[in-house]
Amino acid sequence: MFHVEHFGEIVSTCLAEQIHLIGLSLTSTQFDQFARFADELSRWNQKVNLTAITEPTDVAIKHFLDSLFGVLALPTGAQRLVDVGSGGGFPGIPLKIMMPDLALSIVEPNSKKASFLLHLVGLLKLGQAYVLNRKIEDLSRQDFGMNGPLSIVVRGLKVEDRVGLFACLLNREERLILYSTTPWFHSLDNYQLKLLDQIPYQLPQGLGDRRLIVLKKG
Ligand SMILES: C[S@@+](CC[C@H](N)C(=O)[O-])C[C@H]1O[C@@H](n2cnc3c(N)ncnc32)[C@H](O)[C@@H]1O
User: Fold this and answer.
1) Is ligand 1 within 6 A of the CB of residue 156?
2) Each residue of 131-174: pLDDT tens digit?
3) Considering its fold, how many domains does the chain have in total?
4) 136, 157, 177: residue to mutate for ligand 1 pocket, most atoms within 8 A of CB
5) Model pTM score
6) Most CB atoms within 10 A, among 32, 154, 181, 218?
7) Which whole-number Å values give the CA distances from 210 to 40, 101, 178, 200, in the listed order?
8) Does ipTM top 0.95?
9) Is the shortest distance between the CB of 88 and ligand 1 below 6 Å?
10) Which domain holds residue 107?
11) Is the CB of 113 under 6 A from ligand 1?
C-alpha cells in the first residue's frame, strides 16, 4: 500500500508518461490538480465508496487518462459540459481540469459522492463547475445554465433505457458522448438522435479496449 502523501504524485507522474497518447500536454498547474484530485479520491475512498480502482497506475490510466480521451469526441469550441452519474468525478473533472474554460455541470444523486465532488470543486478552485445532487430524470435543460451549446458525457451509467430523456435535454447539433467497452447497436429510430461516430481507443499497458460513442441531435 502506498503512503497517501505520495499517492497523487505517483498518479500524476504516470499520467505525464501517457498523456501524449491523446496528443495533449498539461501544465504544471494541471498536473498539480490531478495529483490533488488523486490524493482526495484515495482519502475519501476510505469512507465513501467512490471507486473500486485504487492502485495509482490504474487511477492514472483507467480514470484520468480514460476520461481525457473524451476530448476526441467533443465538438470544436465546446463551451458547456454535463457529466451525468459522475461518481468520483469521471469523466467531468479531468475534462474540466484539461479545459478550464468549459462550464461544467456534474449530476450525481448520491449525496456522499456529491459532497466529495463539491469538496473537490472548491479544493481545485474550478470556476464555473456546479454539482447537482439530483437524478438526471429530475432535471431540465435550464438546470445547466443558459449560455452556449451543450455536450453531455456519460461513463458507467446505463443509457439505453434513457435515450429519450437525453434527446430531450439536447438542442439540434448537440452531442451525447458515451464512454463504452462495446459498440452501439441500439435503435435510435424513435429519437431525434443519430450515431455520428464511434471512436475506438486502447488504454496503455494492456488495460483495455474502449470506445467513445458519439450521438448527435438531428
Ligand atoms: C458506475 S457509477 C459511474 C461513475 C463514474 N461516471 C465513473 O465512470 O467512474 C454510476 C453513477 O451514476 C449515478 N447514478 C445512478 N442513477 C443515476 C441517475 N438516475 N441520474 C444520474 N446519476 C445516476 C450513481 O450514483 C453512480 O455514482
Assistant:
1) yes
2) 999 999 999 999 998 778 999 999 999 999 899 999 999 999 99
3) 1
4) 157
5) 0.96
6) 154
7) 26, 27, 10, 6
8) yes
9) yes
10) 4-217
11) yes
